[in-house]
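wait is this the right file?? whatever heres the structure
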């Protein structure tokens, strides 16, 4: 981390700010979908993501880097609520059935795997 000019604590701050801002703006994009066309919201989000990523290159210190990544995160957060709803609407419009989710007793494989990985990692960490 010293090569980049910030510490591990700064990396934690960067991650926390990005995560909080991305979560808050996801909600804003989701609430805006009834009032603004989804394709427009997705396009605006992609432009904001691109501008934030470009600004990252021109930063001179950690504060500028933090602000640029926050802008990029605000743009990227449109992908989940808006992009996913566009894809889901397109698949349903074309007659492709919705993906069947697990019924609770037998969850889909990717869900059970994501539950098992932390337990496996914890077991491996205690064996050293």
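ok assuming it is, sequence goes like this
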């Amino acid at each position: 981390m010293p090569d980049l000019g910030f510490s591990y604590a700064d990396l934690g701050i960067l991650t926390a700010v990005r995560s909080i801002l991305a979560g808050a703006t996801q909600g804003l994009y989701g609430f805006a979908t009834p009032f603004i066309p989804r394709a427009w919201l997705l396009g605006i989000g992609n432009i904001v993501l691109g501008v934030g990523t470009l600004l990252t290159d021109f930063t001179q210190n950690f504060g500028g880097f933090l602000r640029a990544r926050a802008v990029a995160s605000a743009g990227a957060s449109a992908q989940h609520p808006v992009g996913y709803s566009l894809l889901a609407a397109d698949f349903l419009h074309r007659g492709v059935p919705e993906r069947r989710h697990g019924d609770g007793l037998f969850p889909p494989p990717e869900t059970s795997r994501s539950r098992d990985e932390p337990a496996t990692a914890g077991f491996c960490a205690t064996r050293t």
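The mean pLDDT is 77. so i think its the right one actually
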